[in-house]
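A quick word before the example. In earlier lectures we treated sequence and structure as two separate objects. From today on, think of them as two lines of the same record. Here is DNA polymerase-3 subunit epsilon written that way.
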Amino acid sequence: MGFDPFVQFVRGIQGKFHSNIFGGLNGQNAQHMAFIRQMQRELENADSMAIPIRKLNVVVFDIETTGFYPDKGDQIISIGAVKIIDGEICDEDCFYSLVQYDKPLPPEIKELTGLSEGQLVDAPSLADVMISFFEFAKDMPLVAHHANHEKSFMRHSCWKLFRTPFKHKILDTSFLYRVAEPDMALFKLEELCEYNGIPVIGRHHALGDAKLTAQLWCRLGEKAQNSGCANLKDVYERLAKLN
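And the structure line, produced from the sequence above:
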C-alpha cells in the first residue's frame, strides 16, 4: 500500500500555503512549510507492508458528521484520534477537536453524539482542524473502522477546502476482521468490541470511538498474527484468497 499517495497529497497542499487558502494560518506559513517538508522526507521512506502487525505504528481515527453524504452537504463536526506505538495504545497521545458548524444540527445527530449547536459555532474551522490532524498524524498510517465513511468525508473535504485529492490509503479494521474472524458475521463496532471482550465506553464520540477502534485493531492484529499473517502483505494475500 505504501505512502506515495499521501506524499502526493502533501505535495499538493504545499503550494496552497502561499495562496491564503487556509485563512487564519498566514502568519504560520513558514512553520507549516517546514513541517510539510519534514513529513515529505519521512513519508517517502515509509513502508508499512512488511512491518509486523503488532509493531506497526498507526493513528486510529474517527469522525462524527451531520449525515452520511458529504456530496449532499453533510459535514464533519468532530475528529478524534489516538496513536498505537509498538503495539501499545498511547492514551496520553490523543487528538480531538470539534469543527465549526453554524447550522441547526439534525435532531438524530444531536441525540447520537450529544453535541449541540452551541458547542460547534465557535469551534475551529475544518481547514484548521485538518491541518492540526495531519500535524498530529505526521508520517503514520491511518486506521478506521469500516473506513469508507471516513474516506469519503476526508476526500470531499480536501477537495472542497484545498482543491487537492486526498489519496491516503486508510487501513480498515474490516481487513483484519475478515482474516481473524472469517466465520463471524459481526460488523458494528460495538458488536465486535463486545465479542472481543472490549468494554464499550464513549460510543459515538469521535475520540471514544477512536479508542475503541484502537483496542479492536490491537486485538484483531494479535488474532491475525496467530492465524499466520505476520504483516499487512500477508493479510492482503489472505484476503485475495478469501475473495
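Notice the following. The longest helix spans residues 206-226. We will return to this example when we discuss secondary structure assignment.
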